[in-house]
C-alpha cells in the first residue's frame, strides 16, 4: 500500500474558555513519523482525537491524501490507534484481540487466524496467541494492542502515549520496536507524548505545541540546535538562563563577552535572559575566577559541573570528561559562553516547569 499524507488545517477546538486547539496547522508527509510534544494541556491529545474523529473540531479541515475526512466517522477513517491504558478486550485471547477488527470487517476465520498470527509474529509475540490479557505483561499487552491496530492495515497509525504505563527498560525496547515496525510498513504515524527523549529518539520530525498551536515542527537535530523560539529551546533539552544585556546592534553582552543574537530571539534591548545549553558553555580552572564549582556529576562521555556565578546564579556546564578530569567542587573557575549566536529571551518570559 502506498503511504498517504495527513493534513490538519486551521483546527480550532474550545472547551468553554479553554482553547485546546487554537488554529493548529499540521502537515504529515506520506510515511512520516511525527511526534507531538509539549507541556501538559497544550492540546496534543485533542489534536490526535480530532484526527481520529473522536473529537469534532469547531473549525478546520482534516485531510488524508487528497480526501477531506473532516466529517467522516472514526470507524471509516482507516486509522489504527494505540492508547496509553491497556485497552485489550479482557475476555478475548491475544489472537482474537488482534483479529477483532477483521471480524467486524467480515474477513473469514481462516484468513483472520493467519493475519493475527503474522501480526503477533511481527511484534515479537508469536507464542502468546492463546493467552488472555491478564496472562501478559504490560509490555506484551501493548505489543498486542499495536498488532491489533495494524491488523486492519490502516493508512494512518495514531499512538497516544502508548509507552507511559511501562517501566523504563520495556519502554525503550517497545519504543525502538514501534519505530522498526513503522519504518518497515512505511505507515504514516502520529505519536503523542510528553517525554521529549522518546519524541526525539524515534520521530522523523517533532512538533512542539504550545497553547493549541505548533510552535515548531522540525527534525530532532534542528529542534535541539536551532530552536525557533526561546520556548522551544527551553522545552527541549536543558538551557541555562544567564543574565545579559541586549544592545541595539544585534549583539548581547553575557559573562563578559559579546555574542551575536540567534534568530527567534524575542527580547527588546536592555536586560535579558541569555539561553545557553550546558555543552555550549566554556570553563577553565583559574584561581582568580569568579565562579565556584558546587557539584560534579559523571555521565560517561560528559561530566556535568554546576557552578555558582559571581552574582549568585547557578549554571550547568557539560565538558568532555577528560577535560573535566581535575576540576572538583570547591574549585574556583572562569566560565563563559562559547562562540556562535545565542538565543535571547525577555527576563519575564514564562519559564517552563521542569
Ligand atoms: P496532557 O499532556 O496533560 O495530556 P495535552 O497536551 O494532551 O495534555 P489536551 O488533553 O489536548 O492536552 O487538553 C488541552 C486543554 O483542553 C486542557 O486545558 C484540557 O483541560 C482541555 N480539555 C481537553 N479535553 C476536554 C474536555 N473533554 N472537556 C473540557 N476540557 C477539556
Pick out its properties.
354 residues; alpha+beta; six-stranded mixed beta sheet; five-stranded antiparallel beta sheet; 8 helices; 24% helix; 34% strand; elongated; binds adenosine-5'-triphosphate
Structural description of this entry:
The protein has 354 residues and is an alpha+beta fold. 24% of the residues lie in helices and 34% in strands. The protein has eight helices and 20 strands. The protein has helices at 44-52, 94-104, 109-122, 138-151, 168-185, 196-202, 220-225, 230-235, and strands spanning 6-15, 18-28, 33-37, 59-64, 67-68, 79-82, 156-160, 188-192, 205-210, 213-218, 240-246, 251-254, 257-260, 270-276, 281-285, 291-299, 302-308, 314-320, 332-337, 343-346. It has a six-stranded mixed sheet, with helices on both faces. The longest helix is centred in the middle third of the chain and has 18 residues, at 168-185. The two termini are 42 Å apart. The mean pLDDT is 92.
How large, in whole angstroms, is the Cα Rg? 24 Å
Low-confidence stretches: none
List the ions, cofactors and other small molecules found in this model: adenosine-5'-triphosphate
Read across the widest sheet, the strand sequence of neighbours is 6-7-8-3-9-10
**What is the first-to-last residue Cα distance?**
42 Å
Mean pLDDT: 92
List the secondary-structure elements in sequence, H or E: EEEHEEEHHHEHEHEEHHEEEEEEEEEE
Amino acid at each position: 500500500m502506498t503511504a498517504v499524507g495527513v493534513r490538519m488545517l486551521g483546527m480550532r477546538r474550545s472547551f468553554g474558555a479553554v482553547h485546546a486547539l487554537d488554529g493548529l496547522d499540521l502537515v504529515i508527509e506520506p510515511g512520516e513519523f511525527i511526534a507531538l510534544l509539549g507541556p501538559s494541556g497544550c492540546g496534543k491529545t485533542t489534536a490526535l482525537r480530532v484526527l481520529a474523529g473522536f473529537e469534532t473540531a469547531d473549525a478546520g479541515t482534516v485531510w488524508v491524501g487528497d480526501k477531506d475526512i473532516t466529517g467522516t466517522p472514526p470507524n471509516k477513517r482507516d486509522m489504527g490507534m494505540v492508547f496509553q491504558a491497556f485497552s485489550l478486550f479482557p475476555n478475548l485471547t491475544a489472537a482474537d484481540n488482534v483479529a477483532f477488527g477483521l471480524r467486524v470487517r467480515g474477513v473469514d476465520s481462516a484468513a483472520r487466524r493467519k493475519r493475527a498470527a503474522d501480526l503477533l509474529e511481527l511484534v515479537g509475540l508469536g507464542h502468546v496467541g492463546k493467552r488472555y490479557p491478564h496472562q501478559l505483561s504490560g509490555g506484551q499487552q501493548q505489543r498486542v494492542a499495536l498488532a491489533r491496530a495494524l491488523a486492519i492495515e490502516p493508512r494512518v497509525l495514531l499512538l497516544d502515549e502508548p509507552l507511559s504505563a511501562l517501566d523504563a527498560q520495556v519502554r525503550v525496547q517497545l519504543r525502538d520496536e514501534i519505530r522498526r515496525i513503522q519504518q518497515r510498513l512505511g505507515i504514516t504515524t502520529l505519536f503523542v507524548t510528553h517525554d521529549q527523549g522518546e519524541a526525539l529518539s524515534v520521530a522523523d520530525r517533532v512538533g512542539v505545541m504550545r497553547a493549541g498551536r505548533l510552535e515548531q515542527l522540525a527534525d530532532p537535530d534542528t529542534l535541539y540546535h536551532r530552536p525557533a523560539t526561546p520556548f522551544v529551546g527551553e522545552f527541549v533539552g536543558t538551557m541555562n538562563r544567564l543574565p545579559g544585556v541586549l544592545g541595539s546592534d544585534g549583539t548581547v553582552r553575557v559573562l563578559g563577552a559579546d555574542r551575536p543574537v540567534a534568530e527567534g530571539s524575542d527580547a527588546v534591548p536592555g536586560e535579558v535572559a541569555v539561553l545557553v545549553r550546558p555543552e555550549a558553555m566554556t570553563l577553565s580552572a583559574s584561581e582568580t575566577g569568579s565562579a565556584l564549582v558546587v557539584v560534579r556529576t559523571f555521565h560517561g562521555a560528559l561530566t556535568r559541573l554546576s557552578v555558582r556565578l559571581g552574582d549568585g546564579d547557578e549554571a550547568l556546564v557539560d565538558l568532555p570528561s577528560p577535560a573535566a578530569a581535575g576540576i572538583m567542587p570547591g574549585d574556583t573557575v572562569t566560565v563563559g559562553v562559547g562562540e556562535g549566536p545565542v538565543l535571547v529571551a525577555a527576563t519575564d518570559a514564562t519559564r517552563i516547569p521542569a
